[in-house]
Automatic annotation (TrEMBL):
Organism: Candidatus Neomicrothrix parvicella RN1
Top-level taxon of origin: Bacteria
InterPro entries in alphabetical order: AAA_dom, DNA_Partitioning_ATPase, P-loop_NTPase
Protein name: Putative Sporulation initiation inhibitor protein soj
AAA domain residues: 10-183
Amino acid sequence: MASVANVTRVAVVNQKGGVGKTTVTLGLAATAAMRGARVLVVDLDPQANATSGLGVAGAPRSVDDALAGAQPGSMAQSIEFSSWERPPLRSIPRVAPSSPLLAQREMQLATDPVGAQDRLASALQGIDADLTLIDCPPSLGLLTINALFAATHTLIVTEPGAWASDGVDQILANLERVQARRNGLPELVGIAVNRVGRTRDAQYWHNELMATHGDAILPAVHQRAALTEAAAQSLPIHALTRPGAEEASIEFADLYDAMWDRMGHELSISGVA
């Protein structure tokens, strides 16, 4: 597996909103924490849904502060522990919380002629985590570009629909441009198809994605009310007891395992937080 300083950072991306990118980020974070990994979620989306889903509110510092300083390791001052508890988790995920100010930060980055795309990579220097998941905004602007320059791997999240494949193709084209600048990084882990319904239409478009993108397609996550409820209650899906929660937990475990099979290694867990 190609890596940067022996870290594993996965940028979770799609330029389209509403595909459940944050749901997948939180599901993977919960799965990793269930296995004892030290997980950091970096919330780059100004909507701050990952921050809310991890139960963090009113944090004194945010990702925006870290990007503003542009100092190596500055993200350390912004990291908070989530409100998720153990059991059932074996470790407590941490989060670099988002802020609405990030939307303005993206405009400010556009005026930086040198290093605009490297701010996040610099801010994350020296941050100790077994797995860092970067929840990107629903666009291909400079915040997402920062994630791609900081990440070792990329996970594309989409949903079955008429324009899903076109959106994936746009992301892949931009990913290739970044890879050309970074000696092949970040590597593509694969494409996670989220919100797969039980209707004939949903199955048709899911099959179309598999036909178009072949082996890049990872195990699917089906549409379940339990996932919405877990996020609304700021709980990991594994802590929910309502119908559908156990099935969703199993699907995220399958997705998580498939990702690590693609990356060709087992996640090295340094300890339980």
